[in-house]
Design a protein that fits this description.
Blueprint: H1 2-8, H2 22-33, H3 48-67, E1 73-75, H4 93-105, E2 126-136, E3 147-156, E4 163-166, H5 172-180, E5 193-202, E6 207-217, E7 229-231, E8 240-246, H6 247-252, E9 263-271, E10 277-279
Parallel strand pairs: 1-2, 3-7, 4-6
Antiparallel strand pairs: 2-3, 2-5, 4-7, 5-6, 8-9, 9-10
């Protein structure tokens, strides 16, 4: 109480003898306060067992910080369905036209990682999802290069506006096509290049195909210069209805789950390229 009075009513003054009874001190304080009757919160006492637990958490946090360079993300738990799923087939003409329309209507945005995702120590807690990835030109036609990337661990980037692919992970032939082929010119921006993105993603309970648009950017535009795919919001995460269950919750329920796994992401429904809901 004395801390609250001092902080909010520091102008109040009263004199008490060096030795005083509880009742005399409380009475003098009440008279000094007059009509002031603010509310204040009594500090919660931390139980000894909680203090020990908090100490463990603090030590583990220090350990996490020292181990950060070796492990930046954790994969979700999966059943191994992706290895037999193959790669997405080329889009039909109708779906291709819809994707082109989506690409043309994408608003401009700042440098990829002048974004809301924060890089740093906490990144080692971010989950990854695994996908077979196909990249094509937005105006792709039969005979044009296709980039097929198997079992890519994509960062589940809830803070990323869009999905990003670093050009450093592309095979040389496709990277050359991205940089030199004029078929891409209509979809170039100051920051990178929009491409057709098709994914077969393995979640903890099922596999799902997502057809969308991604930005190819330099690793210099990504936190920690991470080479890979960041699975972002627009046309990707914001199309998926899912439940995320972190390892701590699974352990609390008595499940045995490996330390090198983030937990489960269970997909229930998703919105397809025509904005229609699809059940899993």
């Amino acid at each position: 109480m004395s801390y609250s009075i001092s902080a909010h009513h520091g102008d109040l003054k009263m004199k008490l003898p060096t030795t005083v009874t509880y009742k005399s001190a409380i009475k003098a304080t009440s008279e000094c306060l007059g009509d002031i009757n603010d509310k204040f919160a009594l500090p919660l006492r931390v139980k000894p067992e909680f203090e020990g637990r908090l100490r463990e958490m603090a030590l583990r946090n220090i350990s996490d910080m020292s181990n950060f360079p070796q492990q930046s993300t954790l994969p979700i738990r999966k059943a191994g369905l992706l290895k037999d799923a193959g790669f997405p087939k080329p889009l039909s003409k109708t779906k291709m036209e819809r994707l082109k329309e989506n690409a043309r209507n994408m608003p401009p945005f700042p440098d990829p990682y002048t974004l809301t995702l924060r890089a740093g120590i906490a990144e080692r807690k971010l989950p990854t999802v695994t996908a077979n990835v196909s990249l094509r030109a937005i105006d792709w036609f039969e005979g044009q290069p296709v980039c097929a990337l198997p079992t890519v661990e994509m960062l589940w980037g809830t803070g990323a506006h869009h999905t990003f692919v670093t050009k450093e992970m592309l095979p040389p032939s496709f990277k050359y096509d991205v940089e030199k082929n004029h078929i891409h010119d209509a979809y170039r921006t100051e920051n990178g290049l929009r491409v057709q993105l098709q994914l077969i993603i393995e979640f903890s309970n099922s596999i799902v195909q997502i057809d969308s648009v991604a930005m190819v950017v330099s690793k210099l535009d990504v936190p920690n210069e991470r080479v890979g795919v960041i699975f972002g919001q627009s046309g990707c995460i914001d199309k998926i209805v899912c439940r995320s269950i972190p390892r701590a919750a699974l352990q609390a329920k008595g499940e045995d789950i490996a330390e090198d796994v983030w937990g489960d992401i269970i997909v229930e429904e998703y919105v397809d390229i025509f904005d229609e809901i699809q059940a899993v």
